[in-house]
Amino acid sequence: MADIGRRYPLRGQPALSPCPPPPAASAHRPRARPARMPRRDGCLNPAEMQIVRRALADAAAVLLPVDCSGCGAPGRAVCAVCERELAGDFVRRMVDEVPVVSSCAYEGAPARMIAAFKDSGRIDASRALAGALRRSVVEALADDGASGVLAVPVAGSMRAFRRRGYDPLLMLTARARIPTHRLLRLSRRVLDQSALDARQRHANRSGALVARRLLEGRSVLLLDDVVTTGATLSDAIAAVRAAGGAVVGAATIAATPLRRTRPGQPGSRPGDDPALGLRLLRNSKTSLGNPDGAGLGSLRTRR
Length: 303
Known about the structure:
By secondary structure, this protein is of the alpha/beta class. Helices cover 33% and strands 14% of the residues. It has ten helices and seven strands.
């Protein structure tokens, strides 16, 4: 039947030519792969990445002009001068006999950057602020045996989340690549503490935080953006201890300079006395080790 079209073509159509013979069988030869460019391990080193990052920031500043969130200088979301202020001298204090490490003082450019990030939607400052938070965490875990410590951020209110559209602390921990465990939650409504004094802040936060589960035998490092009177951290420390956990330290971006109030004055607490805080810090010996669970020991190598 296949030969009918060749032998008897339809009227007005030429006869079909015979099919070409199949090609001769030949040995299979593997197809040569194109040569690849040599790949360098690690691609770009940190110094080269910094150069590329600055070049991209300069290009973005031309297309989308922006001012520094710390000083208002044009060109960058956080200029080099303000970024260096975030990495100043560590500020250390004690809150309920727990050592708190902060990357800088909450004043000047750092205070303006944090306020702009939290209240003015300047999330473009998150990279610099996240670096300061990570610096504090690494310093807080400087002692040996840091593996097993759980980083627990202080829980914020849903009202603040709805107003901002994001959680500042969780955004910073994610940007800093800090593995966190959300083990605390608010059990009641709290007021905005920006307009409250020390005594009102402690009354506002006392008993507001509770643990989501039992923390028996677990070591916890608390995280927050700013420590002022220590009311929020004090409440978080009490919540962790009530659940059976041990708070080995706390890390924040910045700390408000303490006013030298005499013990016994209205609004004063043991954690607000600088002299007492220094004595407790010298005498405190906390163990950061905990063999159970995923901890923060790997952060100590990323200075």
